[in-house]
Design brief:
Layout (H helix, E strand, L loop, with lengths): L1 H25 L11 H21 L1 H12 L3 H19 L5 H5 L1 H7 L1 H24 L1 H17 L2 H23 L7 H14 L5 E2 L13 E2 L2 E3 L5 H11 L6 H21 L1 H12 L2 H6 L6 H21 L2 H17 L1 H20 L4 H26 L27 H25 L8 H5 L9 H18 L17 H23 L4 H34 L1 H5 L2 H9 L5 E6 L8 H4 L10 E5 L5 H7 L4 E6 L4 E5 L5 H7 L2
Parallel strand pairs: 4-5, 4-6
Antiparallel strand pairs: 1-3, 2-3, 6-7
Pfam family, one: PMT_2
Organism: Abyssobacteria bacterium (strain SURF_5)
Main location: membrane
Length: 658
């Protein structure tokens, strides 16, 4: 009884200490006014050291016994947990920002301690709560856990799949509708929607307007042809949505289908329980749900990747040529959406298939069936490129006119030193992005990528673990050499690796009690699973109760782009009852101000309302080209909307003026 009370007291103390530390850091108590001060960061490190020292003193003998048991294992199995933990720990503790390139990696590591310590405090508090619940409410918690497991893992498969897909569809639609109002808020979204309008009108490109400078936006090409330099796959899908009057529904449909495919892939690889866990994690992932709600290509891209992987696993299992052919078509669909990301994700599977085909008699025919599907997509990709007069190295909406995939401009960088600096920045940026993925993927205070590393710390890993991890690492390697950080809404380039990480996390959660038993030498797997289920429940509650609402507030209120645009512009147009009009948009200082109207333009510029950039006195030139219309000026800075007057013979007057 005394021992039990002692453990309860220790757990309560852990909750109080860690909870207070997290609250103080959340309120910026330590760092107010001196966020980057070395002294303040040293305080954070000291608190972390005190916490770690307390754990060692409290559980020192248990740690010693765990290390002794590991040392008795074969060298390969003994070192695996340490290697996996060390790799994840480096990503978790190192949170350098771009200043680290200028001021040194050491400064970046010191500056990184605040979010790391904050995570440590919150994780410690949740662990203490979980232990306290096991000690004081074991019977109640065990009964509740069994009921939840019965609902999640005991329901019929078809009902579970239908419910999961419906929840993903409703969640992404809700975010798109209530958070973003079905409107584009990023320049890439505007470009995709504009190209989709060109496709929906039956063309591949539009004719550039005479006064092109009034309609210049982002990286949209305006020479003799007017188009977005991006692969055609995603704009084609959006064009279908435009034809039915609902482009916003395209991504939620693919998101729901991707949830079903995620379940099927995980079930093929690991079984029913991990498949259901993966689907639930996708429903609860803020990172994936936010990005799949935007007019960005990640939803259909994930769909085609998962479909290709599922058909490929079926082909490997049964040697069915049709499965390989359909898998090639699926990966080809990914190529038509984003060839760089698709190549990065599929590359480990290509290596695996090369070995697989080499060892099979029917390998050549299966490989041929796979390649036919991929080659068909590549032919369509290059035909479209030739039709618009572009080639692949600059065939992406994020690239500038002088860059391609990598750090080299045309002709090349001025010096090797500049290339090395950019590579160093790429390494810092990669670490930064992985840290965000670990937090944003599930919104947990516990670093979620730790669970993805658990299978590699045990002798339970198989070929699917290596292939899933290989896809993630391959994508990371590609964007290590990518010049654009692209940090809006988190590291969204890594969204394509999200489903593979979710499967690995679900598998890690499933086998984590086995790792605990190995470290402690205990066989009470039921108690370990109960504790882990409580901890996961607390993490989910933290995500739904704190992290997700904070992201919603951030994107809805704090974002200047979304605060100012696009809703005020549309409200002004409707209030003025603008008909047969031209709206000039002064986009200073908001880059997306003109994009809020540009995406509504018809490529032929024959719509009822035309949106153009404000070019000052030169606006009269466009007015003269479109006589008989009403003219308005919208100023984003002051949120003002006023009517303009056409000045006759403007060009002659401006020429005569001194």
């Amino acid at each position: 009884m005394i021992y039990r009370l002692k453990r309860i007291a220790v757990s309560a103390g852990l909750i109080g200490y860690c909870g207070l530390g997290w609250i103080l850091m959340e309120e910026d108590y330590f760092t107010r006014g001196l966020e980057n001060s070395t002294i303040q960061q040293a305080i954070h490190l000291g608190l972390t050291g005190l916490l770690v020292l307390g754990v060692i003193l409290w559980k020192g003998h248990a740690l010693e016994r765990g290390i002794a048991r590991l040392s008795a294992l074969p060298a390969r199995e003994a070192i695996a947990p340490f290697v996996a933990t060390f790799g994840v720990f480096l990503t978790m503790v190192s949170y350098p920002r771009s200043q680290a390139v200028l001021n040194g990696i050491a400064w970046g590591l010191m500056e990184s301690t605040r979010p790391f310590v904050q995570q440590m405090f919150l994780t410690g508090a949740l662990v203490g709560i979980a232990v306290l619940m096991v000690l004081c409410l074991e019977t109640f918690v065990r009964g509740l856990s069994l009921k939840v497991q019965r609902v999640v893992f005991g329901s019929r498969r078809n009902r579970f799949l239908a419910t999961s897909a419906l929840l993903v569809f409703l969640a992404t639609n809700a975010v798109s509708s209530f958070q973003f109002r079905h409107l584009p808020i990023l320049p890439e979204e505007v470009g995709y929607l504009f190209q989709a309008r060109i496709f929906s009108d039956g063309g591949i490109y539009a004719e550039a307007p005479l006064l092109a400078e009034f309609f210049a936006f982002g990286n949209i090409i305006m020479s003799d042809k007017w188009f977005l330099p991006a692969p055609p796959g995603f704009p084609l899908l959006l064009a279908v949505g435009l034809l039915v009057g609902a482009p916003w529904i395209v991504n939620p449909i693919f998101a729901a289908a991707s949830c079903v495919l995620l379940f099927l892939c995980a079930r093929k690889m690991y079984g029913e329980d991990i498949a259901r866990g993966s689907a639930i994690l996708m429903i609860l992932s803020p990172f994936i749900l936010f990005l799949l709600s935007l007019y960005l290509p990640y939803s259909p891209l994930i769909f085609f990747h998962l479909l290709g992987v599922y058909l490929l696993t079926k082909g490997v299992e049964g040697g069915i040529r049709s499965s390989f052919f359909l898998s090639g078509l699926s990966f080809g669909g990914g190529v038509l959406i984003d060839p760089l990301i698709t190549f990065a994700v599929v590359f480990p599977w290509i290596l695996y298939l090369a070995v697989f085909f080499w060892r099979r008699r029917t390998g050549l025919s299966c490989a041929g069936a796979l390649m036919i599907g991929v080659v068909l997509a590549l032919c369509l990709f290059y035909l479209y490129g030739f039709a618009v007069g572009r080639n692949w190295p600059v065939f992406d909406p994020s690239f500038g006119s002088g860059y391609h995939a990598g750090f080299f401009a045309f002709p090349f960088m001025d010096s090797i030193r500049e290339t090395a600096q950019r590579l160093l920045y790429g390494m810092v940026n990669l670490n930064n992005r992985l840290h965000y993925v670990g937090i944003y993927l599930l919104g947990w205070p516990v670093f979620s990528l730790i669970f993805a590393a658990v299978p590699f710390a045990l002798a339970l890993k198989n070929r699917w673990d290596y292939l899933l991890l290989g896809s993630v690492l391959s994508l990371c390697l590609v964007f290590l050499f990518f010049f654009h950080e692209n940090s809006a809404f988190g590291p969204r380039y890594y969204c394509a690796a999200g489903p593979f990480l979710l499967i690995l996390v679900a598998r890690g959660i499933d086998v984590a009690p086995s790792l605990w038993s190995r470290l402690t030498g205990r066989e009470d797997l039921d108690l370990s699973r109960l504790f882990l289920s409580i901890l996961i429940f607390l993490c989910i509650a933290f995500n739904l109760g704190y992290f997700l609402p904070s992201r919603l507030r951030l994107y809805n209120v704090s974002s200047l782009i979304h605060k100012q645009l696009p809703s005020p512009l549309q409200q002004h147009v409707e209030a003025a009852r603008a008909d047969n009009a031209i709206v000039f948009i002064n986009d200073f200082p908001f880059r997306m101000a003109y994009g809020a109207g540009f995406w509504l333009n018809e490529p032929s510029l024959a719509g009822n309302v035309i949106y153009a950039r404000d070019l000052g006195e030169d606006n009269q030139l466009l007015m003269q080209q479109y006589p008989g219309r009403k003219y308005y000026l919208y100023t984003a800075m002051s949120d003002s909307f006023q009517e303009m007057v056409l000045v006759r013979n403007f060009r002659a007057a401006s020429t005569a003026s001194p």
